[in-house]
Specification:
The chain is 84% helix and 0% strand. It has 3 helices and no strands. The termini are far apart.
């Protein structure tokens, strides 16, 4: 009969050890899930900034193409057609710049890590506002300059 309590105590010790391992494993999974959530939020923020950059890049390309189209098409097609083609491209660049700011405002979930910061709103507005003014001057310039 002396063996039964030892066997019982041994089984109890095994169950306690198993419970301890289970708690450690659950804690590790929770820490891992929190880390994955933080990383996902950071990736979402970086993706939003890449999207903003793509809008601005498209706007600058459309602006340059509009000005270039006016210059290259001037002697080839009627001037009104060259002006309209250039105007559409320049207006599209203005649209892209405005869309970039609107898209930049909603960057998704706020980043949970304190070291990850968004581009300040005022930087978006000032930069894109200046580029919209450049587009407007280009639009006026293609119709005024001959």
């Amino acid at each position: 009969m002396a063996r039964e309590p030892n066997l019982l105590e041994q089984k109890v010790a095994e169950v306690e050890e198993s419970a301890t391992q289970l708690r450690r494993s659950a804690d590790a999974v929770e820490v891992s899930a929190d880390r994955n959530t933080e990383l996902a939020a950071t990736r979402t923020l970086l993706a939003a900034e890449r999207t903003y950059a793509a809008w601005v890049r498209t706007a600058l390309a459309a602006l340059a193409t509009g000005v270039g189209a006016k210059a290259l098409l001037s002697g080839v097609v009627p001037s009104w057609f060259a002006g309209i083609s250039a105007s559409v491209l320049i207006l599209f660049s203005g649209f892209c710049l405005i869309a970039a700011v609107c898209r930049g405002l909603d960057a998704g979930v706020p980043p949970p890590l304190p070291g990850v910061r968004r581009i300040p709103f005022w930087v978006l507005v000032v930069t894109n506002g200046f580029l919209v003014l450049v587009a407007l001057f280009a639009l006026v310039g293609i119709w005024v300059m001959k």
